[in-house]
Write a structure and sequence with these properties.
Strand content: over 45%
Bound molecules: calcium ion
Shape: elongated
Oligomer: single chain
Number of domains: 3
Structural class: mainly beta
Order of helices and strands: HEEEEEEHEEHEEEEEEEEHEEEHEEEE
Radius of gyration: 27 Å
Number of helices: 5
Helix content: 10-25%
């Protein structure tokens, strides 16, 4: 038991940097005592259930502080894998999964593609940093929402030009009557020698997708024997929704009803390389413009080409997604 403890402590000391491979070194111990030191990261205590230890090695006069490696690294943002065959510890950055992770990690990892070696970090709540192909860049949009909704990151050659792009959907806004994702397509830039040296961020701007939805969706309000209906259509899809109760509540005639989109927007880059959009469609009246009644949902495919994002295959259905 004691030997195991000493071994794990020695391992802890040998691991010093992210991604490092440590090998157990033999060495004598003159004295070892547990200590009740506290550790803080960003002024927040890192709560460990295993104690730290102060160890003086043979031939040394001062004690060094040793930490329990697995627990410490797991709590500060790493997956820890012990390889008994070559006595090595392998650390890989861990995507955060809780608000505690967010607080305990210096730069919380919020999305990763381990195969591509792409890592998206949150820098507080206001900005993000992407590391990919040897290039790092900070962006002035949020990588994570205050509700800890994680972004989705996928990497594909979205425009078919032979170079992969990074698609990131980040949840930027939630509130009363509002839930909006931001979609970014990030292109890698190369220098004259073909080495990666920068990133260009193409954001799907709300004014762009709202116009595309408005252009692609037709609606008609009708008063039919005392009941009021809105017929919504896009392509071959259509939906008829009874809005009588809403119209009565806001004292609106059929001619007062307006169509609304843009307040409930979701983007999902999926595992197959497609990017799906979902949008809530609503009605409102000029009398109460802030009171939107969500009555239908729209789904669409998002295509990326030459820096521009376009919707296609729009389909509407009754009910709000
Ligand atoms: Ca491409």
């Amino acid at each position: 038991m004691k030997n195991n403890l000493v071994k794990s402590l020695a391992l802890a000391a040998a691991v010093s940097a992210a991604g490092a491979t440590a090998v157990l070194a033999s060495g004598g111990i003159k004295s070892a005592v547990f200590v009740d030191y506290k550790m803080y990261l960003n002024n927040r205590e890192v709560q460990l259930s295993n104690p730290l230890a102060a160890i003086v090695r043979d031939g040394a006069s001062d004690a060094a502080t040793y930490i329990p490696a697995r627990e410490f690294f797991e709590k500060t943002g790493y997956n820890v894998n012990w390889n008994g065959a070559d006595h090595s510890i392998r650390l890989t950055p861990k995507v955060m999964s809780s608000p505690d992770d967010f607080e305990n990690q210096m730069f919380p990892l919020v999305a990763a593609d381990y195969g591509e070696g792409a890592y998206l970090y949150a820098i507080g709540y206001d900005s993000a940093a992407l590391k990919y192909r040897g290039v790092s860049r900070a962006f002035d949009w949020p990588a994570i929402s205050p509700e800890f909704i994680l972004p989705v990151m996928r990497i594909f050659d979205y425009d078919g030009d032979g170079e992969k792009e990074v698609a990131i959907s980040s949840h930027s806004g939630t509130g009363t009557g509002l839930s909006v994702d931001e979609l970014h397509i990030i292109e890698m830039e190369t220098d004259a020698g073909g080495d990666y040296n920068g990133m260009t961020d193409h954001k799907f701007a709300p004014e762009a997708y709202n116009k595309q939805i408005s252009d692609g969706v037709a609606y008609k309000v009708s008063d039919d024997g005392g009941r009021m209906f809105i017929d919504i259509s896009s392509g071959t899809s259509s939906a008829r929704i009874d809005i009588t109760d809403y119209a009565r509540e806001v004292s609106a005639a059929a001619s007062d009803i307006r169509f609304s989109c843009g307040y409930f927007i979701g983007f999902t880059p999926d595992e197959d390389g497609a990017i799906k959009m979902r949008a809530g469609l609503g009605v409102y009246t000029e009398k109460r413009p802030g009171y939107i009644n969500y009555i239908a949902g729209l789904t669409a495919d998002v295509a990326y080409k030459d820096g521009a994002l376009t919707l296609s295959g729009m389909s509407v259905s009754a009910g709000y997604f």
